[in-house]
Amino acid sequence: MSDAPQSKPKPKITSARRLGLKIRLLNTALEMLIVEKQDKEKEREQVLSERVPPLKLSGLSAQELQQLCKDLHHKIDVIDEERYDVGIKVAKNDKEIQEMNQKVYEMKSKLKRPNLKRVKLSAEQMLSVLLGSKHTQSIDFKANLKTVKKEEEKKEEVTDWRKNVEAMSGMEGRKKLFDAGQ
Question: Is the dihedral of CA 24, 25, 28, 34 positive or negative?
C-alpha cells in the first residue's frame, strides 16, 4: 500500500435529484412565508383591537353621541401630535446623519495620501533597516552567487565548398582528414 492518504470519492447527485431538492426547498420557504404573513396579520388585528375598542352606537342618545364624537376627536388630536413629534425626531436624525456624512466626506478629502518616493537601498542598508541592532556583520551576497561559465560553441568557418572539395581530393585530402581525426 502507498503512504499517500486515499481520498474518498465525492457522492454524485443526479440533476433530477438536485432539482427535486431545490423544488422542495422552495415549497418549504413559500409555506414559511405564508405562515409568517398570517402571523403578522393576526398580530396587527390584535394590536388594533387593543388600541381601538369597538364602538357601541346602539341605544345612545344624541347627547351621548356628541360626547363620544368629542372624545374621538380628542384622541385623534393626541395621536396627530404624537405622529408630528415622531416625524420631527426622524427629520432631525436624518439631518444629523447627513451632516455627519458630509463631515466624513470633508475629512477624507483633507487627508490626501502622499506620493511615495522610491528609495534606493543596498542589500546592507536594507538588512540594517529590517534587523536593526541585530545586523552586525556584513554579508556579501554576490560572493554567494553561483558562477556560470558560458562555453563558446565552435563555429566552423563557412568557406567556398568548391575549394574544400579540391583540397580534399586525392591522397593529400585523405591524409588531412586522418591527421585531423587524431
Answer: negative
Hey, what's the cell of 44? 396587527
Helices 161-168 and 170-181: angle between axes, nearest 10 degrees: 100
Q: pLDDT for 23-75, tens place per residue?
A: 999 999 999 999 999 999 999 999 888 887 777 778 888 898 899 899 989 99
Q: pTM for the complete prediction? A: 0.35
Amino acid at 81: E
Query: Which cell goes with 65?
Result: 353621541
Residue 122 and residue 135 in contact, taking contact as beta carbons nearer than 8 Å = no
- In 52-169, which ranges are continuous DSSP H helix? 62-110, 123-131, 141-144, 161-168
Look up residue 138 and give its DSSP letter: -
